[in-house]
Amino acid sequence: MRRAANVSDYRALAKARLPHFLFEYVDGGSYDEVTLRRNLEDLQSIALRQRVLRDVSSINLTTDLFEEHWSMPVGLGPVGLAGFYARRGEVQAARAAAAAGVPFTLSTVGGCSLEEVARARESFWFQLYFVRDRGFVREMIARAKQVGCSALLLTVDLAVPGSRYRDARVAGSGLSRMRQLLSRPAWLWDVALKGRPMSLGNLESVLGKRAPLSDFQAWIHANFDPSVSWKDVEWVRSQWDGPLVVKGILDPEDAREALANEVDGIVVSNHGGRQLDGALSTARALPRVAEAVACRLPILVDGGVRSGLDVVRMLALGANFVLLSRAWAFALAANGGAGVSRALRLIEAEMRVAMALTGCTSVADIDEKVIDRSANQATF
After folding, report:
1. Rounded to the nearest 10 degrees, how much is the dihedral formed by the CA atoms of 78, 306, 24, 284?
2. What is the pLDDT of residues 236-249, one digit of tens each?
3. What is the pLDDT of residue 3?
């Protein structure tokens, strides 16, 4: 396998290794993928101010969040089905994140269960979806508490699932799916056979251990709850006594609502361009949300982050912490936990270069002054 120099290389390697339907699932967005492209393009269009003669011989990337100390302001955000991208994928990613000193977030719809990941890593974050069955939600919260999860990320931008054309195009027949699997013998042997059970660990109580992906998608469409409101956030708060983070904020008014509801943080996110197509990129939404919050609670962000330069851009736009999503999923699919470890090292190295060449020696130095607004055609 060729050595990846950046996240784009990992994407190409993941495409070559994964069955087509799995790659399309992780790579795709909703509708015509306008927001998916905006996430990448808007972020990469931000020009940074190069500064010189600043003594950047010592650069400190460490930061604190939710009373924990991290090696850099970067974490692995929740990625659904990650356990299908590599053998016991979430376990491998959790271990790689722990070795790098950054947080890992397990998705409700991950391949590995809360309990399995807890056996691999002492503390991690859990991402929770609202579903109609509040008993199921209560059970998930209780399980997260029992295994020692240190933060709960409550995803609120999936009251109804977005329409994802790529998933529909590759659905095909059982014969088509089988051809895709047989065309990837390395994945078939390492993941589908040696990585059993191929299930959604946290949903086994409702789907069973052998449910196909079509069952998972049907469950999603049948169970996500369009009636959810801020009262439900208050209910989750009553069940959970650790840091509660609301994920899926794009609008300043919603950020103020989150502040009024006394959550412990927000994630500026458009679900990776997988929900409302045509919505703002997170890079464009972030400054207005940061202004509305005015440093009164931590702001995390995801969407389009592919490099350490992108991390610096997001911090300059007002974020306190940046979550990787597809970036680590591609690396995991390409080379398992070793790929995730290397991707994190690449992100760290790129951050150090970006900070040195913008005159920043600590994360606290990265602010709006790092952005060259005269060179940016768009207003951020």
Report:
1. 80
2. 999 999 999 999 99
3. 86
Closest CA to 204 of 188, 220, 214, 216: 216
pLDDT score at 216: 66
How far CA 205 is from CA of 139, 140, 211, in Å, comes to 11, 11, 11
How far is residue 110's CA from residue 169's CA, in Å, rounded to a whole number?
23
Radius of gyration of the chain (CA): 20
| Active-site residue identified among 20, 69, 221, 271 | 271
Q: Where are the alpha helices (DSSP H) in the chain?
A: 7-17, 20-27, 34-44, 89-100, 114-120, 134-147, 165-171, 174-182, 185-187, 204-207, 213-223, 230-239, 252-260, 282-293, 308-316, 326-357
**Phi-psi region for residue 66, left (φ > 0), alpha (ψ -120 to 50) or beta?**
left
198-220 confidence digits (pLDDT tens): 788 888 777 666 655 666 677 77
With contact defined as beta carbons under 8 Å apart, do 72 and 61 qualify? Answer: yes
Determine the topology of domain 7-368 in CATH: TIM Barrel (3.20.20)
Q: DSSP secondary-structure letter at 272? A: G
Residue corresponding to tokens 């999603």 = 220
Summary count for the chain: helices (H), strands (E): 16, 10
Residue-wise pLDDT for 246-300, tens only, equals 999 999 999 999 999 999 999 999 999 999 999 999 999 999 999 999 999 999 9
Q: How many CB atoms lie within 10 A of CB 5?
A: 9
- What tokens were used for 241? 């006594």
Q: How far apart are CA 339 and CA 204, in angstroms?
A: 28
Residue 69 annotated in active site:
no
Distance, in Å, from the CA atom of 344 to the CA atom of 334, rounded to the nearest integer, reads 14
Asked whether the whole model's pTM tops 0.90, one would answer: yes
Residue with tokens 């500064």: 51
